[in-house]
From TrEMBL:
<feature type="domain" description="Glycosyl hydrolase family 13 catalytic">
    <location>
        <begin position="14"/>
        <end position="403"/>
    </location>
</feature>
<dbReference type="Pfam" id="PF00128">
    <property type="entry name" value="Alpha-amylase"/>
</dbReference>
<protein>
    <submittedName>
        <fullName>Alpha-glucosidase</fullName>
    </submittedName>
</protein>
<dbReference type="InterPro" id="IPR017853">
    <property type="entry name" value="GH"/>
</dbReference>
<dbReference type="InterPro" id="IPR006047">
    <property type="entry name" value="GH13_cat_dom"/>
</dbReference>
<dbReference type="InterPro" id="IPR032091">
    <property type="entry name" value="Malt_amylase-like_C"/>
</dbReference>
<dbReference type="InterPro" id="IPR045857">
    <property type="entry name" value="O16G_dom_2"/>
</dbReference>
<dbReference type="Pfam" id="PF16657">
    <property type="entry name" value="Malt_amylase_C"/>
</dbReference>
<dbReference type="InterPro" id="IPR013780">
    <property type="entry name" value="Glyco_hydro_b"/>
</dbReference>
<comment type="similarity">
    <text>Belongs to the glycosyl hydrolase 13 family.</text>
</comment>
Length: 540
């Protein structure tokens, strides 16, 4: 059987259900809300949606702490609602991917409730338990991404349990074959239900070092964050032992063997390790994950050199796999704010950022609101919900600023809810609502719709290889080639006009002007690029 590869070059639209659309007035988005807006999603021209967790959960980490992998939390609806969502999406030609959080559960999960009771029960070895040191301190120096020690004392067992994230998110013990089997059974439940893919949260965290060795310290000058800030103590260590263990590779192969029984289904692994690009190269191939993405473009560095270096590094390392790129998601400041430099050019920047991520070799994740050019919302401390932001305020304000409700209309609650939204609606978003932009032919929304349809007409942009050209800052230039189509793509990443002399070795350049973006002009052997311009051309 030929394996379907619909996901290669696909544009995947991420929906954060809490903030998409609330249909019952409780202030929290729900599955019926997604169903109600699937026609809108289809109008964007995306290939798939990825829905962040909607499973039964106490919501300590807003659904990434799962209490029941096989049921929908009443906050979001029912399994019947999910089945209706799946059917409606498929009728519109949209594939459905769901989040799977395999490395840890909620403390409210039945497995953990049993495991914590004693050292002898059937689930005693399903989580990572360890004795205290002689002085009562935790068994090693591992730290949590969300701040502080990664061990929590459990008096019932007289032991510590491991949590790489919140203390209410205990890590499963994947060294136990029963855990691996039960995890695969949960995945199979959704595949049998008809989902088209799995986005695998923190997939390199499934295994820990069985010897519980200390992580070595990291010098201050090397402390950089990916999904955490450099002043977080988590950045003070090399995380050699609490994640990304060699045993994880065999589990990924078991997972892929299961997926191969569902030829249309795909996997997208979220990977954040000491060398995320090297781990992606190791994890993504025909025997393991179909796709991988990292936090490497979810950074503050937006220079052409950084983007080129990141993509070239991955291209060199991941010779057998397929990448997926994102510059926004539910964990980082919105890209228009993070990479923005000039409010006067915010609309052209928003269009350019979507064009950029859609022009790299690989698949694409677009986060809800990215198609509207939404900036980061300013959420006051008293309205914060994110435990990560509350813990690290004010140096790090958490993830709520990118999670505020989707603005559908310009009214007080932006058409999101008839009740009080779980996070405040951003005033800065109201003029950028779907209702407003729908009616504006030149809006970011209509520009993105046009761009995504235009991209599908160019195999080089969807499936082609990539080769970068030497160019000075702030110009990023590369060539994409697929069969008989070769395209040049050039981006001015600044808010000032620039002039770039075209390389003499380029074949004949035929500008493409039907993409709807701010473009450039060739005069002689030079390319004139306005602020945030995107220039596409056929070569040869």
């Amino acid at each position: 059987m030929t394996m379907a590869r619909w996901w290669r070059g696909a544009v995947i639209y991420q929906i954060y259900p809490r903030s998409f659309l609330d249909t019952n007035g409780d202030g929290v988005g729900d599955l019926p809300g997604i169903i109600a807006r699937l026609d809108y999603v289809a109008s964007l021209g995306v290939d798939a949606i990825w829905i962040s967790p909607f499973f039964k959960s106490p919501m300590a980490d807003f659904g990434y702490d799962i209490a029941d992998y096989r049921d929908v939390d009443p906050l979001f609806g029912t399994l019947d609602d999910f089945d209706r969502l799946l059917a409606k999406a498929h009728s519109l030609g949209i594939r459905v991917m769901i989040d799977q959080v395999l490395s840890h559960t909620s403390i409210d999960h039945a497995w953990f409730k049993e495991s914590r009771e004693s050292r002898e029960n059937d689930k005693a070895d399903w989580y990572v338990w360890a004795d205290a040191r002689d002085d009562g301190t935790p068994p090693n120096n591992w730290l949590s991404i969300f701040g502080g020690v990664a061990w929590q004392w459990e008096p019932r067992r007289g032991q510590y349990f491991l949590h790489n994230f919140l203390a209410s998110q205990p890590d499963l013990n994947f060294h136990n074959p029963a855990v691996r089997e039960a995890t695969l059974d949960n995945v199979k439940f959704w595949l049998d239900r008809g989902v088209d893919g799995l986005r695998l949260d923190a997939i390199n965290f499934c295994f820990h070092d069985a010897q519980l060795r200390d992580n070595p310290p990291k010098p201050a000058e090397l402390r950089t964050g990916r999904g955490f800030s450099a002043d977080n103590p988590y950045a003070f260590q090399y995380h050699h032992h609490n994640n990304t263990q060699p045993e994880n590779l065999a589990f990924l192969e078991d997972l892929r063997a299961l997926l191969d029984r569902y030829p249309d289904a795909t996997t997208l692994g979220e990977i954040s390790s000491e060398d995320s690009l090297a781990t992606m190269a190791e994890y993504v191939n025909d025997q393991r994950l179909h796709m991988g993405y990292s936090f490497e473009l979810l950074t503050d560095d937006r220079s052409a050199a950084y983007i080129r270096g990141t993509v070239e590094d991955l291209e060199a390392k991941m010779t057998a796999g397929w990448p997926c790129w994102a510059i926004s998601n539910h964990d980082v400041r919105r890209a228009v704010t993070r990479w923005g430099s000039d409010a006067a050019n915010a609309e052209s920047l928003a269009r350019q950022l979507v064009a950029l991520v859609c022009s790299l070799r690989g698949s694409v994740c677009l986060y809800q609101g990215e198609e509207l050019g939404l900036p980061e919302a300013d959420v006051p401390f008293e309205a914060l919900q994110d435990p990560y932001g509350i813990a690290f305020w004010p140096n790090f304000k958490g993830r709520d600023g990118c999670r505020t409700p989707m603005p559908w209309s310009g009214d007080a609650q932006s058409g999101f809810s008839s009740g009080t939204p779980w996070l405040p609606v951003a005033e800065s978003h109201q003029a950028l609502s779907v209702h407003v932009q729908d009616a504006q032919p030149d809006s970011v929304l209509n520009g993105v719709r046009h761009l995504l349809r235009w991209r599908k007409q160019h195999p080089a942009l969807v499936l082609g290889n990539i080769r970068f050209l030497d160019a000075p800052e702030p110009v990023l230039a590369f060539v994409r080639s697929e069969r008989d189509e070769t395209l040049l793509a050039v981006f001015n990443l600044s808010a000032q006009p620039v002039r770039w002399t075209l390389p003499s070795e380029l074949p004949a350049v035929s500008p493409l002007t039907d993409h709807g973006l701010v473009s450039g002009e060739i005069t002689g052997n030079a390319l004139q690029l306005p602020a945030h311009a995107v220039f596409y051309a056929r070569l040869g």
